[in-house]
From TrEMBL:
It comes from the Eukaryota. This is Uncharacterized protein. InterPro entries: TPR-like_helical_dom_sf (IPR011990). It comes from Pavo cristatus. Pfam families: ANAPC3.
């Protein structure tokens, strides 16, 4: 619960930076607040911009037994592909994209999976 408290404070102080919202949603997920976690990501459309957010939103809906919504989130490919295409066009035209992309490393993904598996077995 204290991790959730601090994650909420960091997200507020950082003016809702995507990475901080992701970690807030992660804390909500780990405390079984699946709907709040999914809402934190989806209301800001982070599930359409970042793969890690999409995966977490799908896991939230799956854990909440909303299997069709989880599948729908995993099936939506067009928005992310469109964003990558637009980024490619900007790079080709010599324009610099001011936003920086962030991804979870494979070890972070496996750590998250281990933690969530451990918690769900309790």
């Amino acid at each position: 619960q204290s991790a959730l408290f601090w994650a909420d404070k960091v997200a507020s102080l950082s003016h809702e930076e995507p990475q901080d919202i992701y970690w807030l949603a992660q804390c909500l997920y780990l405390t079984a607040q699946y709907h709040r976690a999914a809402h934190a990501l989806r209301s800001r459309k982070l599930d359409k911009l970042y793969e890690a957010c999409r995966y977490l939103a799908a896991r939230c809906h799956y854990a909440a037994k909303e299997h069709q919504q989880a599948l729908d989130i995993l099936d939506m490919e067009e928005p992310i592909n469109k964003r990558l295409f637009e980024k490619y066009l900007k790079d080709e035209s010599g324009l610099k994209d001011s936003t920086t992309d962030w991804e979870m490393s494979q070890s972070s993904v496996s750590d998250v999976f281990k933690v969530t598996t451990f918690i769900t077995k309790k």
